[in-house]
Amino acid sequence: MDSAVQMIGITKSFSGLIANDNIDFLVQKGEIHGLLGENGAGKTVLMCTLYGLHRPDKGKILINGKEVVMDSPAVAIKHGVGMVHQHFMLLPSLTVSENIILGNEPIKNGLFLDLEKAHDSVEALSKRFNLEVDPDAEIDVLPVGVQQRVEILKALYRGAEILILDEPTAILTPQEVDMLLKALIELKTQGKTIILISHKLKEILRICDNITVLRKGKLVGTVRKEETSLSQLARMMVDRQLVETFEKKVVEKNEDVLEIVGLEVNDERNLPAIRGMSLKVRTYEILGVAGVEGNGQSELVEALMGLRRIRKGDILLKGQKINELSAKDRIRRGVSHVPEDRIKRGLILDFSVMENLILGGQGQAPFSKNGLIIDYGAAAKYSDNLIRDYSISATNRDTLARNLSGGTQQRVVLAREFSRNPSLILAYQPSRGLDVGATEFVRGKLVEMRDEGCAVLLISADLDEIRALSDRIAVMYEGRIVAERDPGETNEEDLGLLMAGGKI
């Protein structure tokens, strides 16, 4: 089989830090090739080099057997290489068609934009590759999964024969993931070559022909799908055996920590998002809430944290009603929050690691004596201890949060929230976007906090996570708890059916 991509001896460094160290990478025509590695392993840097966003310090690139100097994305596109980035590059105010043709617009009469031709071209392209979109829909009203299709069609419109996808399933629901993977298989049958950057081992094994693993900027190796396994790939990524099951402390008596009674909450449009929900979470317990995103999970967490007003019902913490308490007061009462989006809700990116670790407590002892002036000596000692205890990979406590990898950023959030000695932890998608090593750490810490007596409300669309960690599972659909299951007496298929509104 002929090669579509050959990268030989690629080396790339930034400010003295080596991101890619003499990497050889080979992709055959017409295959789906997985590129695995932990956060910071060098996957995205290598593919941005292939796409012309970075110039390698050393090495060469061959496309279809011919050496090419990839000094810009325009050159990459000219040679049939397209890239769909993890963070979409779409303009929300434009339509699907307008986004796809942007920069390569059809013209009529030598002067005017031919929107009719653009519409027809996009419609024909979506049918050809089985990527259904509405050409006239505006981007800002589309679900994330549909926006993903638009990004792929945008690359195909420009003639991409080699398609790079960077963590394409990181923010998709299980149903959207399934649709995307089927679409990629369809693209392969039509002769396209696909490079799939990911750290989700099951997805890689499901559709890839060959899999290359990077670790700390170096090539570990390339294996065929038929000749490897989840455990082998995980070991290649992190150089150790990962914990797959978590032993939990057995406790005979639990006490109620959180009680929700008849809760009703509206969404941003003032429409019902939580509809008469009632549930309890107890000490020494992880209650996993499974559900497809968009069924009221965000509104539930915001209501519990005091970030969204409730319309009806009560929230009780250790028997005391906290409906009217502010988020600050709830934190002081022992509620900790691991948010869905660590960038928007968990961290201030231009604050240092130390400043983020004391965030929310900076006006209290031991970090402040009078509520106005921070005791930097106490803050430094406290943060240094947490950096050590949580293995936070930062140059020092003064490193800015924006310069940390995703996994390290999440460790900062966990260190801050768990060190407050909480009685209740609200963990919303705590391992989203993390590699297998960081995911193992996060899940292990949640179990550790549970074993110390915390009540943990775990909200996740990842059924593997829900089943691995939960003592009880509640299924959420359209703002209601529609079922409760014992993790040992249910399976992924039944949970998936319940999450979609079905009955068993």
Account of the protein in words:
With 504 residues, the chain is α/β, with parallel strands linked by helices. It folds into 2 domains: 3-238, P-loop containing nucleotide triphosphate hydrolases (Rossmann fold, 3-Layer(aba) Sandwich); 256-334 and 421-499, P-loop containing nucleotide triphosphate hydrolases (Rossmann fold, 3-Layer(aba) Sandwich). It is built from 17 helices and 22 strands. The chain has helices at residues 43-50, 73-78, 96-101, 115-128, 144-157, 174-189, 201-207, 230-238, 297-304, 327-332, 342-346, 353-357, 376-389, 406-418, 436-451, 463-469, 492-499, and strands at residues 3-14, 17-28, 32-36, 58-63, 66-68, 81-84, 107-108, 112-113, 162-166, 193-198, 210-215, 218-224, 256-266, 272-282, 285-290, 312-317, 320-321, 335-338, 424-428, 455-460, 472-477, 480-485. The strands form 5 sheets. Strands 6-9-10-3-11-12 form a 6-stranded mixed β-sheet, with helices on both faces. The protein starts with a strand and ends in a 5-residue tail after the last helix.
Give the SSE map.
Blueprint: E1 3-14, E2 17-28, E3 32-36, H1 43-50, E4 58-63, E5 66-68, H2 73-78, E6 81-84, H3 96-101, E7 107-108, E8 112-113, H4 115-128, H5 144-157, E9 162-166, H6 174-189, E10 193-198, H7 201-207, E11 210-215, E12 218-224, H8 230-238, E13 256-266, E14 272-282, E15 285-290, H9 297-304, E16 312-317, E17 320-321, H10 327-332, E18 335-338, H11 342-346, H12 353-357, H13 376-389, H14 406-418, E19 424-428, H15 436-451, E20 455-460, H16 463-469, E21 472-477, E22 480-485, H17 492-499
Parallel strand pairs: 3-10, 3-11, 6-9, 9-10, 15-20, 15-21, 18-19, 19-20
Antiparallel strand pairs: 1-2, 1-4, 4-5, 7-8, 11-12, 13-14, 13-16, 16-17, 21-22
Helix pairs in contact: 14-15
